[in-house]
Design goal:
Blueprint lengths: L2 H4 L1 H11 L1 H26 L11 H32 L1
């Protein structure tokens, strides 16, 4: 199922509140956050063989990539907001 279909209500809400681009990015950011939560839960059970107090290396790598993706999306959302605010002045 398409993300646009599956998250239709959420997309409509955020697009109305933040505008089309920022609204879609906000929903994408929510999806990334949900993925981080799921990976974190999985990391509790998949621990490193060398250090059982840490998640397995692949879980740590996935988590880091998701965190980086969130940072990039957040920076784009902020740049769009700043451009809109500057244009309104």
């Amino acid at each position: 199922m398409s993300a646009f279909t599956e998250h239709k209500d959420e997309l409509e809400h955020y697009e109305q509140m933040l505008g089309k681009e920022r609204g879609r990015l906000a929903v994408g950011l929510d999806r990334l956050t949900n993925a981080l939560v799921l990976v974190g839960q999985h990391g509790v059970y998949c621990t490193s063989q060398r250090n059982p107090t840490l998640p397995a290396m692949d879980i740590r790598m996935i988590t880091q990539e998701l965190v980086h993706a969130k940072e990039l999306v957040q920076s784009v959302m902020e740049a769009i907001r700043q451009a809109r605010d500057d244009a309104a002045k």
